[in-house]
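FAQ

Q: What does a record look like?
A: Structure on top, sequence underneath. For example:
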């Protein structure tokens, strides 16, 4: 977590350096933008190097954590847990949920901060800048609008705000599937269908006894 906190602080410093500089000063001094761009590029390089070993940790947390959470949900819906199992699995799931929330929120905040300078660059009037300044701004924008910047899990997905929706959608889909295919629901469905089939015959025998007797004789 200390690595993430350090990177987030540096990303905040880059954004604050853009906020402190007036827009007019940035137009007249492209060297300021170049210095900020170089700091941003260095931070992107640090994140890329950190991903080489953090991706394994993220994969372990997301894979193990989601599996544990889904197993707990399955056991709760089907009433398969004893009190002791519920306490143990509940505490374990709470730990995984806590770490997943911390990792996801920190990664999403870092991703947002790393892409935030694009708002300031769009406010610059490049027509009033020199050719060198325009080239610097164009290079900076191409990096900010390119591949997502942040921590990723084996290049499968980058930890950003969409990761929250992905986790919530996975859990909700699993809950709906488990509820739909719950064994008790199938038994009730079969019982209700058999009752519906027997109901017309019973009503016919009750309302038309003579017809019912004739049918029995013919049979």
């Amino acid at each position: 977590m200390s690595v993430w906190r350090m990177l987030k602080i540096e990303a905040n410093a880059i954004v604050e350096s853009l906020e402190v500089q007036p827009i007019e000063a940035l137009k007249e001094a492209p060297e300021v933008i170049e210095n900020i761009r170089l700091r941003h590029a260095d931070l992107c390089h640090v994140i890329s190097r950190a991903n080489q070993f953090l991706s394994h940790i993220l994969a372990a947390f997301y894979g193990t954590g989601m599996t544990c959470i889904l197993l707990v949900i399955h056991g709760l819906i089907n009433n398969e847990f004893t009190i002791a199992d519920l306490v143990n699995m509940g505490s374990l799931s709470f730990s995984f949920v806590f770490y997943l929330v911390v990792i996801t929120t920190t990664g999403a905040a870092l991703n947002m901060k790393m892409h935030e300078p694009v708002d300031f660059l769009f406010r610059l009037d490049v027509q009033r800048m020199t050719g060198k300044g325009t080239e610097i701004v164009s290079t900076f924008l191409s990096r900010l609008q390119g591949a997502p910047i942040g921590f990723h899990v084996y290049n499968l997905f980058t930890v950003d705000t969409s990761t929250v929706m992905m986790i919530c959608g996975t859990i909700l889909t699993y809950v709906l599937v488990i509820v739909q295919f719950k064994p008790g629901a199938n038994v009730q469905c079969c019982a209700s269908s058999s009752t519906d089939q027997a109901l017309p015959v019973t009503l016919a025998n009750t309302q038309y006894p003579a017809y019912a007797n004739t049918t029995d004789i013919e049979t």
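Q: Is there anything notable about this one?
A: Residues 2-181 form one domain.
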